[in-house]
Amino acid sequence: MSLLTDLINLNLSDTTQKIIAEYIWIGGSGMDLRSKARTLSGPVSDPSKLPKWNYDGSSTGQAPGEDSEVILYPQAIFKDPFRRGNNILVICDAYTPAGEPIPTNKRAGAAKIFSHPNVVAEVPWYGLEQEYTLLKKDVHWPLGWPTGGFPGPQGPYYCGIGADKAFGRDIVDSHYKACLYAGVNISGINGEVMPGQWEFQVGPSVGISAGDELWVARYILERITEIAGVVVSFDPKPIPGDWNGAGCHTNYSTKSMRNPGGYEIIKKAIDKLGLRHKEHIAAYGEGNERRLTGRHETADINTFLWGVANRGASIRVGRDTEKEGKGYFEDRRPASNMDPYVVTSMIAETTILL
Amino acid sequence: MSLLTDLINLNLSDTTEKIIAEYIWIGGSGMDLRSKARTLSGPVSDPSKLPKWNYDGSSTGQAPGEDSEVILYPQAIFKDPFRRGSNILVICDAYTPAGEPIPTNKRAAAAKIFSHPKVVAEVPWYGLEQEYTLLKKDVHWPLGWPTGGFPGPQGPYYCGIGADKAFGRDIVDSHYKACLYAGVNISGINGEVMPGQWEFQVGPSVGISAGDELWVARYILERITEIAGVVVSFDPKPIPGDWNGAGCHTNYSTKSMRNPGGYEIIKKAIDKLGLRHKEHIAAYGEGNERRLTGRHETADINTFLWGVANRGASIRVGRDTEKEGKGYFEDRRPASNMDPYVVTSMVAETTILL
């Protein structure tokens, strides 16, 4: 279908100043991404210069039919890796016509926390490790697995190569480049322990941009799997039994933690997180109890445990951080389907404001 | 899926200075290659300028879960033939956080031998002839063979052409160009005696770089078979019976051997190897006893035999070397699954240091 590809890849910069902006938002489930496009008269690089828009909230479970308009506020711009040229992706959040964030809008609450002076002063950095599973379309069984059966047990697949160990690398590699092109701060990728499962990392990002970047990275990923005819799953335990789950480990540091004496600040922060373990777990993703079992490199969901280089802990501190007396730590509890606005702001709130 | 291909082939040099570095290491079995990628802020050509990294050794059989971090030290850089642009492949070896090579790290000890002043002075050259077998995915039967059956007996396949004699040439030829692109010193390829079996040669390489180059060539090969949906096997006797095995013949010379009077040095070196036959055989690859039978162009595993132009010998000296009184010799004992760090350093140690 090269004629279709020719049209998709048309470089419009030769014929017009107009650009296409794809407005992206999160739907009523809190995990379903939605988007639609509009033409703008010329290139835009500042979100505040983009027009507000609206969508039919009654079609996404976010508004009643008789009063269906939900307003989109543009928050972050990225280059569009699919349309390229001067075309853009726009991360938005959703408000009522009266200007109130709708209930599923988690960004607004996070933005409040991240603009608190105590939090601003600490310059919180986040590194988010997004794990996900690729599934065959229609049968919803992992890519590379025999349909109706299972592959050999876990062992060879983590960072593995070869047609019998790595399934779907073309999706992963095109996602890596597409995100770099888009301006997302994607820092790496690796094949995961369960076959058909992969991970990418976004960061270090400051404050609210961690959430914006992870959501646009998830958007780009699902658009790519759409092209590939494969389904992406963010379920935290896609296959029950002796198969790893999928998480979104959240690496975190503040200015104080990154400076000399930071290790003590880190230990104090971990203690504060320990006191609010239940509240955090409740906000760390649905279905996480199927994943946090104490096996498969997790800590049991009811246990709060931290340790250096310990992958079976709730919170892991790297050896480098221990050795240098400063650095960052990794909260291993969040599930792959966590909302990064919620998780990043909650960690900042618990460790800085409480 | 040309849209996916467009993304995989995006040339990021137009949009960013950032590059992607694929860090490669050897896993717990000593033959399983692993890799993961990270973003760097700009191009790097000197391995000592690359950051150390770490990986989850508990997922590769190289560390326990409670203390899972294994440190990667970058050792050699090659251009990435898959991502192209300024992106790179990095051959690494693995250390504990305390800085000790982990038990499966064979490069560290080889580097010690190759930095011994006597060895340095002799400028040891290696030419490694890597044989391998291509297998159909899922059934693990050689490519081109009827599933559940056998092709006609060996004879027509060695360097053969034609759809009934050469199976998988697209893999072999893309590997050849990819390696040249990457900067690997690949010196040739040929179809082998057993149908579905091929060989490539790397060299002449000096000292430790022989191992680095062979490992990255193996990595590129398995990444290419992954794309092709075919499995590569380095088993030394993939099919029992009247079918050739797969070796990694190691050609070797020192400065003294390459100079006038070198033939006497060669004979002395071969004698030294003969005295340590059992020790070398033990380090020349697992399963080699199935291959070194005395038939199919091998010498029996318990016999140490050398001869000019003799392919049934443990060590073969070429007619040119005999005629010119200097040159190199070929150790035919190593199996296809040998570790080149072990074999090259052991040959140097036995012939130069003992």
Automatic annotation (TrEMBL), chain A:
Residues 19-99 form the GS beta-grasp domain. Keywords: ATP-binding, Ligase, Nucleotide-binding. One of its GO terms (biological process) is glutamine biosynthetic process. It catalyses: L-glutamate + NH4(+) + ATP = L-glutamine + ADP + phosphate + H(+). Transmembrane segments: none annotated. PROSITE patterns: GLNA_1, GLNA_ATP, GS_BETA_GRASP, GS_CATALYTIC. It comes from the Eukaryota. It is an enzyme of class 6 (ligase). InterPro entries: Gln_synt_N, Gln_synt_N_sf, Gln_synth/guanido_kin_cat_dom, Gln_synth_cat_dom, Gln_synth_gly_rich_site, Gln_synth_N_conserv_site, Glutamine_Synthetase. One of its GO terms (cellular component) is cytoplasm. Residues 106-354 form the GS catalytic domain. SMART domains: Gln-synt_C (SM01230). Its EC number is 6.3.1.2. Belongs to the glutamine synthetase family. This is Glutamine synthetase. The lineage of its organism: Eukaryota, Viridiplantae, Streptophyta, Embryophyta, Tracheophyta.
UniProtKB/TrEMBL annotation, chain B:
Residues 19-99 form the GS beta-grasp domain. Its EC number is 6.3.1.2. Keywords: ATP-binding, Cytoplasm, Ligase, Nucleotide-binding. One of its GO terms (molecular function) is ATP binding. InterPro entries: Gln_synt_N (IPR008147), Gln_synt_N_sf (IPR036651), Gln_synth/guanido_kin_cat_dom (IPR014746), Gln_synth_cat_dom (IPR008146), Gln_synth_gly_rich_site (IPR027303), Gln_synth_N_conserv_site (IPR027302), Glutamine_Synthetase (IPR050292). GO terms for biological process: glutamine biosynthetic process. It comes from the Eukaryota. SUPFAM superfamilies: Glutamine synthetase, N-terminal domain (SSF54368), Glutamine synthetase/guanido kinase (SSF55931). It is found in: Cytoplasm. SMART domains: Gln-synt_C (SM01230). Residues 106-354 form the GS catalytic domain. It catalyses: L-glutamate + NH4(+) + ATP = L-glutamine + ADP + phosphate + H(+). PROSITE patterns: GLNA_1 (PS00180), GLNA_ATP (PS00181), GS_BETA_GRASP (PS51986), GS_CATALYTIC (PS51987). GO terms for cellular component: cytoplasm. Belongs to the glutamine synthetase family. This is Glutamine synthetase. It comes from Escallonia herrerae.
